[in-house]
Each structure stands twice: as C-alpha cells, then as structure tokens.
Design goal:
heterotrimer, A alpha/beta (about 290), B alpha+beta (about 160), C alpha+beta (about 375), A: about 290 residues, alpha/beta, Elongation Factor Tu (Ef-tu), domain 3, Rossmann fold, 2 domains, 7-stranded mixed β-sheet, 6-stranded antiparallel β-sheet, about 30% strand, globular, B: about 160 residues, alpha+beta, Jelly Rolls, 4 helices
Chain lengths: ~290, ~160, ~375
C-alpha cells in the first residue's frame, strides 16, 4: 500500500481515493441499546502518526464484503492513537460491524467533510443542542472546548434522548461539568426512577437566558429536532449565520463524486456535514429536497 | 403552607408575568394564593383528585405522571421554575385530575385556589383576560412539547411505526 | 504532397479514400478504435476496424420519445446524430471493478485492477466533446481524482466531427457547445461528400494526420464549412434560452406547481440518466465468496431516479417521483453550475428522444419560468 499519494493528515490515497486503510478494533464500548463506540487504531504506523481530524468530520468505515458507512468521529481530537466511531446498528454495514470483535480489522477512509468552526467565534457563548445519535459528532468539539475553555463565554449542552437508558456518554457528564460545560439533560419520557427533566430538547431553550449578540448554536441530531432547535434559536434572535447544523444523507464515496449525498446545490460530504444555517435557509421548508 | 403576606408578595414578584400586571390585579391574585414548601417525593395531586389548586413552581422540579397499567407510573413532563402545574383547574373540562403531580426535588411553589381564581375572573373580566392569556400561552407550549414527544424523534428505525 | 507543416489551427483537406489509412495510423499507435455503427436500427458505439462499418448514408429523425434511423444514401460517414449511447461508457464504464480484497492470515490484502485500454473515439460530436469536458470536472478534482477515469482519459485519442445536420431534439447552440467543435480534440473533422477538412489539435493528432496525404484547405471549402455551420445553428430542433439565469430560475422555484405536473407524467424509469453523457452518479456493490475470505468491490452506474438512491436509516429523503424529477432537473441545469462552474447539460437532446413519456426538458423549463408561483 503506497502512501506516496496520501496527504499527511488523511487516510486517503488521492490517486485512488476509494482504497481503504486498515484499522484494528482495540476496544468496543456499549453506549446505549443498539449503539456502541468502536475505538480503532490504524495498522500502518505512518498513517497512525499522521492522521488527524477536526471535530465534526467523519470517516467512511468499511466491512469487507458488506460495504461502507459514513460514521462521525466521536473521540477527542487530541487522542491521536485511538479514533472513536460511535455506531448505531441499523443497516447492513453497521449490523455487520456489530458482529465484529476486538482484534478484527475494518477499512477506513477519511477524514471527510467540514468541521464545527468555533474558532471563528472567539469569546462567544456556545449552545450545543443535540439528542439521540446526534451527540457523538459533537463530543469531539466538547473536548476541544474544555481544552480551550477560556476562549469562550458560557457553554451549555442541551441533550435529550427517548428514555433515560438511551442517554449516551452519561459517565462523562460530570467530567464535562468540571470542564466548564453546563449540561441540561432531558428525556421524552421516563419512569419514576428518573430525577431529571422530562420534555423535548428544543424547549430547554425556555430555561436558558441567551444573549443573542454573542451566542453561537451548534446542533446535530434527527432533522426534525434540528428544525425545532433552530426555530427556538431564531425566535431568540440568534442570527442564522451563527447557527451551525450537522446533516446526514446517503453517502457512498465521501468525495463529492458519486452524487448521492446532494442537498440542493450542496454535497453533504464535502460542503457539509456541518453547515452554516444561513446557507440552508432557502431550502429549509422544502419537503423531500 | 404559609400565608405570610410579605413573603408571598415578594415571591409572586419574582414571577415574570406577575411583574407585568397592574397593582390592583396583583392584589386580587395575592388574595387567592399561598406559598407552599415541598420535599422530594411530596405529592401535589393524584389522578382522579378534584381539581382544587393551580401551582406555579418557584424553585425545584415537579413531575407530571400518568399511571399506565402494566408499565407503572410514566413521567411525561417535568415543570421547572416559573412553569405552571395543574392549569386545567382554572378552565375545567372533566373536573378531575387526568395526571398526577409529584415534587422531584425539594422546592417552593405558589398554590392558587382554582375556584376563587375563577370567581375573580368572572367578576373582573380584565383580570380574567390577563389570566386566560397567560394560560393560553402555557397550553400552547405544552401542546408543542407534547407534539414533539409524539413524533418520537429519537426512535430507532426499528421502533418506528410503519408508514406505508 | 505533405510539405505543408501541420500547426495548431491549420486546416487541411484529406480525401475520403485515405480515411482507412487514417484509422490504420491510429491502430498502429496502439489505440482501440471505437466508432458509430448501426445495430438494431439504432446508432451504437462499437469497435471500429474499417470505414465499411460506419453508418454511411444514414440520418436520424428524433423527437420527444421518438427515434428513427433512416437510410437516405448520402455519402457521409458521420452525418447522423447520435443514438442512446454516449462516449462516457468508455471513460466511466457502467461496471468497473474497484479492487478485490483477499483475506490472508487474519489480514486483508488488496488487489487493484488496472485494466485501462487506450481508446480512440472516432466521430465525437461537439456536444459530446463538451460532455467529456464536463465529466473531467467531476472525476478529476483538485483534491482527488478517480483512477479509472484518469487513466482512460489520459490515454484517449479523440477524433471529433463538426455537426452540420442537427436533429429534432438538438439544442447545442443554446448551451454554446456546438455545432462547431470547441478545443480539446486530437483531430477535428468537417465532413463533405468526398473529403474531410482536418485540423490537428495535439501532437498525437499531428502524428496521425501526417500518415495520410493532405492538401491545404481551399478558401471555398473553408467557406462551405462555415456556411454549413451557420445553417446548422438555425436548424436546431429545440432551444433553451437564457442559460445564465437557469440556476436562479430553478433553485428559486423549488415549490412551483409545475413539478406536480411533470411528476404525473414521469415514470421514474431513469432512461434520461442512462443516455445523458454527463450524468455521473455511481454506487458501489460489495460481494463476497461463501467463506467470506475474498470480497470484490465493483463500481456501477446509479441514477437519482432509483428508489433507494436517497435512502438513509429510517427513511428516504426523496420518496416520490416529484422530488426525484426535481432533483434531476435542478441538478443538471442549476446545482451543477454551483458545483462544477459549468452547466451539466450540453444540449444533445438524448433525454428528450429517449424518454418513454416524451418529457422535454426545454418545455418543462419554459413552463417553470412562465407561471411564477409565490
């Protein structure tokens, strides 16, 4: 496998960008029913040392014989050795991954896509609105924020899930609070053992006082949730160009070359997955675009 | 329960919509209100109870629950500070509570006598309009929350109901 | 006879009788020749060995959902507008192996496939050359390029032919891609009954051309060619006006009622995407042997009309014909301009000819522009 055509920080061969780079499963961490994080380490030491990603980016992960799936990278970008991929087992490829064990090898290409551009907003108050499988793509940026905590004002994480047992990364919430991230957790419904909030993520805004002049919103999750989080943000006069959303579409190549992931004029794999909401505003109320 | 007027008055003044009403209406509402201290686990009302009070949460958290045979008590909403619990007692339809309310955290609430409040609204329509406007907002936001819960946006695809 | 120096832009006259020598010269340079041929009453692109197999004497009659090949007996090899096939099948094959993975000692090894023939594409019309150049922007990007396309494109030898007799569904003039061939060819021909005007566009083109006798092109011939092209411009079967305003006109009308109208007629069959020379969507199919030790990845053409094209976990973002047709048309004529700085359409008219429902995108665009719905 030649690395001549591999840019320093990527696991992509620019002359043959569909070739995978092999990575071993070092650890599997169950997060919630049907969701686990797979910690991968590249076999090739040059790739391992060079690979780096920015929060918000994704890899194309391959199971030989089954195909590839686009998986958001969910680990701390400062951890260069192990790259975390949080996977919900829904389709052919992700279900094949669920049958794999520590020591098995997966094919990886990436990182692809745009990142959460918080470096463009020094001093801003950050509101991270997410739920369900939307938290993993934000987790890298949470670690980045904690490491550069003084670059930002107030940082709040609004996080929701269907029921308490669907909450992911719960073991890390205390660490994040210590790092200066206020966490507001809610579930759609619960039983009496749940002492926290019951409601939906968008209305967590009702319990926040945001300063629209310096707030930046990052949101990721089911598109219906994103729509209502954005709705609440706009209702509080946060300008659309300070709202960032991460979207998902059918991705087959990650390169902007196969056509599948298009949304209006954009390729979600190349112009996204993180979009400045202002770019999406003309298309947001159209069905089936 | 306390009816110390000074404490009650300053507590009511912390509530945003109370800050916007005229002094005369404020006095009338004070007259039908009490302050209430609760411990975690205290029940405000049960399904089937007569609807006697409307509550405004000042501090703490109150869970709205419905008992589902076979599934136990389902927590379907939690009211946070400045949220209203038991609003239907002011515009009663079925004349009994359709859900239970229980304090999750220790806290303080304002309890308003529903019957007395209704009488005030009947006698002074200006006050009535203010109160109903406020309740309409509460109902609208609850409806939105309920609709979003109904959509079940975080359901795993295998959990979703068939569309076709 | 060949004392004239061949320079870029200089046009010479080659006798029809010498055409097979021209083909022979390409052959001896190692090219696999592909040219138009008649098969099953239609023009296809097939391996070319001599001028005998070329569709001399044919014209094609084309309209929405209508194609007829008619023999008139004229003396020209290439004077018939193309059929359903395009040249993209040679640079961007419909099925192509990406690589095979072999499991050995618990690790996977990759075997690449490096079968990239050197083709000489003969009879490429101006619209088709423009289409190849559109696909260049898709497959040869700054960040990365597709090796299959890159290898074939680097090796290909293009013999283009100016178009003097456009047909009923042509509108290359509206797009600016014809009827005169633009730059990018190796050899360009203008065909008359008994001779070709030939222009070399590259060093290889010069080498090939220098293998046959040629004369300087007379002023009369050059004038005839120019007049023929001017006539051709006036005889386009369709028009698509104001192409610079298309992106805004379409992306600003995504909720127009006309989309419902087209949706009632469109069968979502995907013919248009198959016959279009610029459509580039592809998918990957993975297969494995029974033991799971050897797996094969193959790239295949896909179409935005396929029901699963926009499938993601939990649903389909384009579940109906209306949204899929809208995607195809707005991509081709609007989004493409944002993505690749050029329109996706070259005005060849194939999508009009080969649509079983007879949908004509020039008519649909006109309708979308006419009634503006707020």
């Amino acid at each position: 496998m030649t690395t001549l055509a591999t840019p320093q920080h990527m696991a992509v061969n620019t002359l043959n960008p569909m070739l995978p780079y092999w990575a071993e499963i070092i650890r599997i961490q169950p997060e919630a029913p049907g969701i686990s994080t797979y910690w991968l380490r590249f076999l090739d030491s040059a790739v391992r040392q060079g690979f780096s990603f920015r929060p918000g980016q994704f890899n194309m992960v391959q199971v030989p014989g089954y195909g590839e799936a686009a998986i958001s990278i969910s680990s701390d970008p400062a951890d260069r050795e192990l790259i975390g991929h949080t996977i919900r087992h829904t389709g052919n490829v992700t279900q094949a991954i669920s049958r794999m064990k520590v020591g098995d090898v997966l094919g990886v290409r990436g990182p692809f896509g745009t990142h959460w551009p918080i470096e463009q907003h020094p001093g801003a108050d950050l509101v991270l609105g997410t739920g369900g499988i939307g938290l993993p793509p934000l987790r890298p940026v949470i670690y980045h924020i904690i490491r550069h905590r003084h670059d930002f004002g107030r940082v709040v994480l609004l996080y929701g899930a269907r029921t308490p047992r669907d909450l992911q990364f719960q073991r890390e919430f205390a660490e994040w609070e210590k790092g200066g991230i206020e966490t507001m957790i809610t579930v759609d419904r619960a039983d009496e053992s749940w002492q926290g909030l019951v409601g939906v993520v968008p209305i967590l805004f009702y319990h926040l006082r945001v300063d629209p002049r310096k707030s930046v919103v990052l949101t990721c999750g089911p598109e219906i949730m994103i729509r209502f989080v954005v709705f609440e943000a706009l209702a509080r006069r946060i300008p659309s160009n300070r709202i960032y959303v991460s979207l998902e579409r059918n991705m087959r190549c990650g390169l902007g070359m196969c056509g599948h992931c298009q949304l209006g004029p954009y390729f979600v794999c190349k112009d996204g997955p993180v979009f400045n909401f202002e770019l999406l505003e003309p298309y947001v109320n159209l069905e089936n675009l | 329960m306390t009816s110390d007027p000074k404490e009650l008055r300053s507590a009511l003044q912390t509530i945003p919509w109370f800050q916007e009403i005229d002094p005369n209406h404020f006095e009338q509402l004070c007259g039908v209100s009490r302050l209430l201290q609760v411990e975690a686990g205290d029940e405000l009302f049960r399904e089937g109870d007569k609807e006697e009070f409307m509550y405004i949460v000042l501090e703490g958290r109150v869970a709205i629950e419905i008992y589902v045979p076979g599934r136990g008590r389902m927590r379907i909403y939690t009211a946070e500070p400045m949220d209203i619990v038991g609003w239907s007692s002011v515009t009663p339809v079925v004349r009994q509570r359709t859900a239970s309310a229980r304090a999750v955290l220790p806290g303080r609430l304002v309890a308003m006598d529903a019957k007395a409040l209704r009488r005030l609204c009947d006698e002074d329509h200006d006050l009535g309009y203010v109160v109903m406007r406020r309740l309409a907002n509460v109902v609208a936001s609850r409806l939105l929350v309920t609709r979003l819960q109904l959509i079940d946006m975080f359901a795993h695809p295998s959990q979703e109901t068939e569309h076709e | 006879m060949n004392e004239i120096l061949l320079e870029a832009g200089s046009v010479v006259a080659v006798q029809k009788g010498d055409f097979d020598s021209l083909l022979g010269a390409m052959n001896s340079l190692g090219y696999n020749l592909i040219g138009p041929a008649v098969r099953d009453d239609a023009i296809v692109y097939a391996p070319l060995f001599s001028s005998i197999s070329l569709p001399q004497g044919y014209i094609s009659e084309q309209d929405a959902g209508h194609y007829r090949l008619i023999y008139t007996g004229h003396g020209r090899y290439f004077d018939v507008t193309p059929g359903a096939q395009t040249w993209k099948q040679f640079l961007f094959p419909a099925r192509a192996p990406l690589y095979t993975q072999q499991r050995k000692d618990g690790r996977w090894q990759i075997e690449s496939h490096d079968d990239h023939p050197a083709y000489a594409l003969i009879g490429v019309r101006p619209c088709e050359l423009a289409a190849i150049q559109v696909q260049d922007r898709v497959f040869l990007q700054e960040a990365w390029s597709d090796p299959i396309y890159r290898h074939r494109r680097q090796r290909v030898f293009i013999v283009s032919v100016d178009c003097l007799h456009p047909c009923g569904t042509c509108f290359c003039d509206s797009i600016g891609t014809g009827p005169k061939t633009g730059p990018g060819f190796d050899l360009n021909l203008t065909e008359f009954d008994d001779l070709f005007l030939a222009e070399a566009g590259s060093e290889t083109g010069k080498i090939v051309l220098s293998n046959v006798p040629y004369q300087p092109a007379s002023a009369f011939l050059l004038q005839s060619a120019r007049r023929g092209l001017a006539d051709a411009r006036k005889r386009m079967g369709r028009t698509l006006p104001d192409i610079d305003e298309l992106p805004e006109a379409l992306l600003g009308n995504l909720d127009h009622t006309h989309w419902d109208d087209v949706a009632r007629r469109c069968l979502s069959c995907g013919n248009c995407t198959q016959v279009c020379p610029t459509c580039f969507c592809w998918d990957v199919q993975d297969s494995t042997d029974l033991q799971g030790t050897r797996s094969h990845r193959e790239r295949i053409w896909d179409s935005c009309f396929n029901p699963d094209y926009s499938y993601i976990a939990g649903g389909n973002t384009r579940p109906d014909t209306r949204s899929r047709y809208r995607q195809w048309l707005t991509h081709k004529l609007a989004s493409w301009k944002h993505q690749f700085d050029v329109l996706g359409c070259v005005g060849c008219g194939r999508c009009i000819t080969w649509c079983p429902a007879g949908i004509d995108l020039t008519v649909e665009v006109a309708a979308l522009r006419r009634e503006f719905v707020k």
